[in-house]
Amino acid sequence: MLGLVDQLAHQIRALETSGRVGSDQRVSISSGCQELDACLPERGYRPGTIVEWLEPTVGCGGYYLALAAARQAMTDGKYLIVVDPAKTFYPPAARSMGIPIERMIVLHPEHTSDAMWSIDQALRCSAVGAVVASLEQISELQARRFQLAAEQGQALGCWLRPGKVQRAPSWAEVQWWVEPLHGELGSGANKNIRRIGLRSLRMRGGVVGRRWALAIDTQNGHLAMETPHAITSSLCLAAQLAKPKSERETRRRTG
Amino acid sequence: MKLGEELAKQPFVLQARDPRRGLRVMAADSLARQLGIVPSMSISEACALVPSLRLLDYDPQEDLESIVELAEEAWQFSPLVGLESLDEQPWAGRSLHQPQAIFLDATGLTHFFGGQAQWLTLVTRWLFEKGYVGIAAIAESIGAAWAIANYAYRRQAAPRLLAMRTSPGQAIAPVFDGQAIDVTRLPIEALRLDIKTVQSLHQLGIRSIEALLRLPRAGLANRLGERLLNRLDAVCARQSEPIRCLQENVDYSVEQALEVPTNHRETIEEIVRRLTIQLCKRLQSDGHGALRLVCCLRMEQAPALVVPLGLYRATSDHEHLLPLILAAVSQKTSATFSKSQKPTFNSSRRTRHRFNVTAVTLSATLTGPLVWKQTELFECQANRHRETLAHLVDSLSGRLGRRQVVAPQIYRHPQPELACQWRALTGQRTDGRPQSTQRKLPRLSSVEPSPDDPLRRPLQLWHPPQPLAIQSLTPDGLPTRFLFQGTQTHIVRSWGPERVESGWWQGANHRRDYYRIETDRGAWLWIYRDLKQHAWFLHGVF
């Protein structure tokens, strides 16, 4: 019976992911957190896909998570491209995360059209492991173009996006909503912990709407998952208010 | 010195560390000079004179690249262009041990431009249009031209140079009246001599070339060396001094003149294609690849269009180079023509003829060996990636611009904004990278907090820092509430302070107390209190 359930689950996943699950043996890219990888349908992010982190406000931790995943994609001497038109990216912080800066290239395009073209070119290059960019509004056509480019070059596209684009169409394989979680005040070891909540808005072959809480140890940069019960209790007010209305209504209806 | 809008606001200097004398002023803008700051002055002295002085680090590599780019464009005025050759010791009267002059061979070509005066005016006007203030001179020898430009015209133009900021006006052209300037009346510094020799001559009471010429030659050579006599002969045009041409090898330059000048796009592209193939064959035969290319389109009446192109790694693959060159030419053509009169089919016949191309030249100004040095026994994946990446970087640089495709260089500097600098990836020799300017500081002990710790520095740094509107403070003076992005924000947690202080010897010093804070909206920010201004600033986001 269990074997039949497993078989059916596998078939459903294969349908959801266009038959890619288990179709080849390529190693997936870790998200930077082993426990989170275990929750993802392919035990990580699939190379040649787009992952998006949506933040309700700047500085919620999305950039850290994007770079943590990008670092994992820099295997076999592959390069990281950071597209930074605002010229705010600060490489010393990236180096302290363990990213080899000798394999990091930063682009400062002056026009939006140049930025879009650069991202497309970088994704198509087989020497590029990951492309990190902050994207606000992109057309559906452009998003699809990025997805195809990533598939061609097998690079991981890591997009930082504002929360307001939540309802915009996306071609991302995985889309995260980054929820700020507060650490507990003055409680010993927790003092050096940065807590970040993640909610899956879109995940091909995975469960949508599920929550995880991640903790970054500011002493060593280690990214780990917290126990599930700690998540809901520590959601800050802003994060709760930022939930989409439809979900709140669903929860109210279900009791 | 290049003029720019942002530089006009505040007096600024470029500083560099002299191994013996500490931090020195390498160059000062006209506003700083008006306030009494001169090159070679110590930074502490300069800051005492002008407390609001802005200090920028002098980058010799960038300076060299800028003058090389300028020299490459100067080919429109002469086929032989070179930079001044430096001696081992810096010359007296110069604060920088860097090439600062471009030599052009004007033999037999000035009449094409309407005479020597017109040629000089064209050169200085071109420099001014590029954003530089240039002093030009023509003479019978390189030594004399250098001496006149630096010690005759430059001094005449000095008051006007200082007034440049308030009234830019026309290009500062030398006062050229057709009469030869008597170089013998110039000071001995005009001979490009080292400081020690000049000091010795000053001790002997010799201050001008004229006085030096009166002394017996044999005695001078014995006491002060052969170089003095060589320089003396060069100034007096008794000895020819060759221009050390910028181009490494004249074979790496191909040209095609057009019998009938044209502005037909496809024709010009075809010529560029043929020249690229021709140049690549020459490079391949020598086992070399191009690192910098310059494509020059000579126009019938308008100034020549010079298109430089930098490459990430040496290549002689014409299939790779051709699209890059064509894209760069197309980009430059549209940018240039949009500024002036764009040649269209509707434009007048005269306008169209003005932009007709008469000749196309393609030169490899910087080359390198084609083969990568093998460091491993077996070919690894990383080497293959490096080759693939070179194509990407070249095309990105071609479209975005050389300075928009960069790699970070991290320095150990207390000021966060100065701890990272950018290096352009293309157009540089792969084996000739400059030495790191990072100071060797004592290793920090593990107990002390290090900027290298994760989350110690923000992932995004805002430059300049944004002033914070603080609404309430704790008794300790820490903010509890402030305005961030137009909304009231409360601080939930904070870590700090981390005192960041620049040394007094580094100029206008900064004293800041940094805090990492967590807001009620879940954002992690990096704020600091400026202990000199007693104000709070937002500097970064984690």
Structure, explained:
The complex is a heterodimer of chains A (255) and B (542). Chain A has 255 residues and is of the alpha/beta class. Chain A has one domain: Rossmann fold (3-Layer(aba) Sandwich), CATH 3.40.50. Chain A is 33% helix and 22% strand. Chain A contains nine helices and nine strands. Chain A has helices at residues 2-16, 34-39, 62-72, 91-96, 112-124, 140-153, 229-233, 237-241, 245-254, and strands at residues 50-55, 79-83, 104-107, 128-134, 156-162, 174-180, 193-203, 211-217, 223-225. A nine-stranded mixed sheet of chain A has the order 3-2-4-5-1-6-7-8-9, sandwiched between helices. In chain A, strand 4, helix 6 and strand 5 (156-162) form a beta-alpha-beta unit. In chain A, helix 5 (112-124) runs parallel beside helix 6. Mean pLDDT of chain A is 81; it is low at 229-240. Chain B is α+β, with helices and mostly antiparallel strands. Chain B has four domains: 7-56, MutS, DNA mismatch repair protein, domain I (3-Layer(aba) Sandwich), CATH 3.40.1170.60; 59-246, no CATH class; 250-402, DNA polymerase, Y-family, little finger domain (Dna Ligase, domain 1, 2-Layer Sandwich); 460-541, no CATH class. Chain B contains 13 helices and 18 strands. Chain B has helices at residues 30-34, 43-49, 60-73, 116-129, 142-162, 195-203, 209-213, 217-224, 226-235, 265-285, 318-339, 349-354, 381-400, and strands at residues 12-18, 22-28, 54-57, 81-83, 102-104, 253-262, 288-299, 305-315, 357-369, 405-410, 420-424, 460-467, 469-473, 479-484, 487-501, 511-519, 524-530, 535-541. In chain B, the strands form five sheets. Chain B has a seven-stranded antiparallel sheet, with no helix packed on it. Chain B has a four-stranded antiparallel sheet with strand order 6-9-7-8, with helices on both faces. At the A-B interface, helix 3, helix 4, strand 3, helix 5 and helix 8 of A face helix 13, strand 10 and strand 12 of B.
